[in-house]
Structures
1.
Amino acid sequence: MRRAVSATGLSRHRAGFGWTVVPAPGSILASTRVASWDPEPDYFHHWTRDAAIALAAIPAAIAAEPEPEPEAFWRQAVVDHIRFSLAISDPNRRGPEFNPLKTTATGAFRPYLRPDAELAALGGQAWLAEPRCAADGGPDLERWGRPQFDGPALRAAALIRLGELMPEAQGPEAARLIARDLDFTLAMAGAPCLGPWEEEPARRSSFTLIAQCDALDLGARHLGRADLAEAAATLAGLIAGAADPVSGGWRESLEAAPGALDAATVLALVQAGRMDGPFALTAPRSRATMAALETLFAGLYPLNRDRAAPALGRWAGDVFFGGNPWFPVTLGFAEAHYRIAAATGEAAEFDRAEALMAVVEDLAPEGDDLPEQADRETGAPSSCLGLSWSAAAYLAAAAARDQALASR
């Protein structure tokens, strides 16, 4: 994860686009890998959602690297990330009138250029609906799935929680970014958009709704704003409509059919980290969602045969790169079980988390990079071979394990 943060020493040249990008201080790359969908995907971008998840894992990163120099790096990373985020979401900034890559892209790459009209329309709160930007802070010049509303909510929640732990997440700049993110989340609360997996069509995914509800509730208490508290309560009532009569858990979205579950819902619950209320990790619907998904994937993937716990994927019909187990998902479920164990003292929950971590240990390749996926049959690394989200998820799960051990 450290290599992905403020990676100013890296450079990415996309020859087909004629586009060279050098990451800016404060950016967090979804991956430092240089690839062009050949077949490894090109994740050399700053995703707001992925960056917020990495931001939330910084205390765990500091604990994992207790020496003074690494701690100074991470503290400066928070400062730089706040400034970078303010710059890319500046409401007074305007998008370019035309895509500058039109003059440099080869014929084969021009179909992937973002339309001029989309870029020219950027300004105001529209910047916050952008799922990602170029690592140098420029607008995303490629076609991609938009809009997405989860990133600002996750970032606001991460910063509010970080502010309780370190002064670098406090102060006027942090306050300005938190307020900007919360105002956007308030404006978009409950509106359809693309979910965390960026799949059409736009809908009211449980992941986004839970992230929004968590941020608004935190913001209401942090800022003393009644409008945020009212919106959080309204969202909680809306999410109740995603209750699944089949599993007893939460459906993927308000629009999803009965029995349609998605691991992203659990990841949203993990990011919120609550231990009371309807979205607590210990709540019956949270546990039911986890249990149903674990049972599903245990039988879906051949590599899970004879395992004590399954490698976990996103949803039953996933076909991205063949539809495989995802490291961030398996690690997120492990973190959830560790946190439940710490809160309840249930030995079975700790044992389940340990079994999931053993799956990760078994599937992880040698070296210090964790891939995005593992092949559903062979377990070989698949898709992106070094994902920042995977690293952040590992740090968070390891920190939750420490907490569970300390509570035993």
Note: The chain has a mean pLDDT of 97.
2.
Amino acid sequence: MGRNHARVLSSLDGVEFVAAVDPAGDPHGCVPAMLGVPVLREVADLLALGVDYAVVACPTGLHEEVGLQLAAHDVCALIEKPLAHTPQAARRLVHAFEERGLVAGVGHVERFNPALQQLRTRLEAGELGEVFQVVTRRQGPFPHRIADVGVVKDLATHDIDLTSWITGRAYASLSARTVSKSGREHEDMVAVVGSLTDGTMVSHLVNWLSPLKERFTAVTGERGCFVADTLTADLTFHANGAVATEWEALRAFRGVAEGDTVRYAFPKREPLVVEHERFRDAVRDGTGEGSGIVTAREGLRTVQVSAAVLASAHEAAPAVPAVPAVPAVPAEPAVPAEPVGSVEPTQTPSAVRTPAPVPATAPERDPSAPSIAEHTA
């Protein structure tokens, strides 16, 4: 990601890209020599240049250390998502920048995707009516550059942030499951279901295990469904049907019918460029609120929700114990046939009784531990 930040900063109007920091000396050539920008070894070397703001694109576990160092020297910062590796670290960063009146943003670049920008504008205008559900899918191959966090903190934070942003609602409750199949210590896949404060249902499927790369967001409401593809920056609207049907078998179904489909045309600018322009302007104006950036406080909220996702997954209900196999029942002896003309049988065959399965005994649970449904953020 540092390579892309360097590319944008080097050509951003009103900004002078003066230096980059990489303790390893930029072995991957993220800062091309043609830019004439030095690659420094320490953040202290950058601070000595007297910079106005910096972009923090190091491993997540180092965000707090670097961010606090910048704040202590009155340097504004755009910190890549997630803001920090824990809610406690994120809270310390928020406090450090806010108490000094510094602008701090978080690099949730999906907010600046033109498809999602259009989607939010149309939701705010009431074009969908009441919102019922938000569904996201973010799938693709494992990125080998990510080593210190799992798919929840690296990818699911995108969906957590954009869901709250486009709906204007916070998360109220959630439940999650994760799996790890790649041999790493962190999770590779997560499935989340939950609800927002207004009752809107949410569902997120995120993984690094699929060869199919997908970036899908669907918002369903009383007038239809918006579908945003952030890979192509396309936004499509599927309207509820308004044409009456004369087919009797279909008329019995009183649910939603398929209506018109519209794919919108709108300008499509690179999201990272828009993100940097917004942050540049926020630094100039001296405030993050109302500037269109993702503020550090909003980034804290996303870190808190991602922590709740992991907590829910770790405390998931145990698998149901296998029910013992039912033993074979010996055949009943044959009942002699009744004589012809008999009115009452001389013997009533007994019913075959199948042993009832042994009920599974739930493991004892710590009464002080929260239930899955109680994970709120």
Note: The two ends are 28 Å apart (CA to CA).
3.
Amino acid sequence: MKPQNFLIIIGTITLYFLFELFNPYLKSMTVALLLAVATNSLNLYITAKIPSKFFSSLIMTIILTLVFFIPLIYCVFSFATLINNIDQQALAKMLTKLESWVTLLPNDFTLVKEQLMEAIDKINIKAYIENLLSFGAYLGKNSAKFILDMVMILIFYFFFNFYSIPLSNYLKSLLPLKKEDASALFFESSTVMSVVLYSILATAILEGFLFGIFISFFGYDGILLGVLYGFASLIPVVGGLIMWLPMALYEGFTVSSTNAIIIAIYSIVIISIIADTFIKPVIIKFINLRVVKTKANINELLIFFSIIAGLSTFGFWGMIIGPAMVTFFISIIQLLKKFSNEYSIKKVDDEI
């Protein structure tokens, strides 16, 4: 047996046992690595200001915790508490008012009235409450595992930032590419992923902040609903609708129709039109030109489907893994396009 074949066999067996050894942490390591790659531009900026690699990595970890993980933890626990404190009588009152509203519809809409009344008759508030309570119990039971995953991600994220330079140099040396080509691949991947991550976070924070501040004036938990609106805003076109429409309907049926109209107008005009249509492109342009120092256009619909696919395949953390995989593939395509152009130019020069 050739020594090379022997080493390949031994390496494959060792790789299998390494996979089994680190399998419980692979998802956390993957998410942490992708976040480290996506925030590489910010890490370089902070490292330039703070030469100490330990403190710069610690600051990056703290920033990630404050911006991403603390709102998530607050959202999970608050949502579980909210479910356990649902007022069944208020929901019954809302259903009764909805039924009376449907009966007042003109006779010209008889077919619509029949369909709506049939749908209302099928609503079983008690069953819905039981399902929500079961979901709340599920959140409470799995919250410990969720927090543990977050802690592991933050630990791996810190070390990926701390050893970013030697680790990237080692990975580049393993690739069957020239040094400059490997660097270009890493740069393209980091750039595209940075634009996607920063754009997502900036949009979620902006729209979540606008909605949370506004809805708090109606006596609701502005922080919780702001965080939920921020996550909902990741869904193109109908993202904000799935948050403000239920709130407007609830206010309209239980408190005041005026409040419902105010919530709807504010959400459509201030958030959907002004913030999402006019302010969001400015933020993305700023990120492209000032933060990552390059231009990268990623279709929102592509991001949406990558988030949905990631969630269905990898669970909650697929929200990060899905877009990262898609953007990494896009960066490879861009690099291949670059190689193709260079090859074409070289071929023309050789012919001349």
Note: The mean pLDDT is 76.
